[in-house]
């Protein structure tokens, strides 16, 4: 089943500033985003969640020869300070970069918080998996700047700054305190990239006394991946923190170990002023419109949002209904079930 870690992963720094009903910017997304967004809205309505949705179109538009978010969308998200987002597909064509990266950089969403837990009623490779990973969200290899030297040679910039390293590692330490974990594992590859990853590691070492109740450990990426597959439970008492690319790889790996489907994995993109909660999977255009998509990732991301704004009681009710539905065997195809999106959604609603 989902552990208490999943239930309480969001730092509630500004709950008191959200009035009820809470207004949330809703980014429907592309592909299956239309279907899973409809499922979430239906389930939230049945649960009586005091949420007011404001549809938000994030574009894209081109500004200064690069991908940008429309001004109207930026203003809406800044006003509401919280958003729920479906999967976005980046348009194909010169001048476009990842919309997800654009959102993170536009709003300074420096930390991606992603739990991955086993689910009662669906045993996969392991039982009782319980990971929490914090991924630096704005720079690294995903900084988004590439240069073509000539037709045979290209260069990609990997940006690592002390400020970004410090705030994301501090965030991970705070998460460890909040979730009752004893360790923070700082993942790096400083033996290969001593300047960039070396800085990430050095900043971590400078924070060993940031909270004396939390022990900081340092581990090379290849060691972490090997050990996490061999014996995942050695990381159950830790929050793992990593630079952007490594965090992306680790979190997808963890989802595979826990349930074998990104369709169950939510995440939170946390910034100083704005937080955006999202399903981590892609837009899956091959199954869009076929009533096959699993809405759980976006639903559980919505539950993380509810915890963030002080509506944890609704989050618990919704998660309990969803997990009971899965335990009964009502599962979509990604979980080796035969239920449609509509059947799964309606079964959850029936329990609310």
TrEMBL record:
Residues 23-348 form the Isopropylmalate dehydrogenase-like domain. Keywords: Magnesium, Metal-binding, Oxidoreductase. Belongs to the isocitrate and isopropylmalate dehydrogenases family. This is Probable Isocitrate dehydrogenase [NAD] subunit 2, mitochondrial. It comes from Hanseniaspora guilliermondii. One of its GO terms (biological process) is tricarboxylic acid cycle. It comes from the Eukaryota. SMART domains: Iso_dh (SM01329). InterPro entries: IsoCit/isopropylmalate_DH_CS, IsoPropMal-DH-like_dom. GO terms for molecular function: isocitrate dehydrogenase (NAD+) activity; magnesium ion binding; NAD binding. One of its GO terms (cellular component) is isocitrate dehydrogenase complex (NAD+).
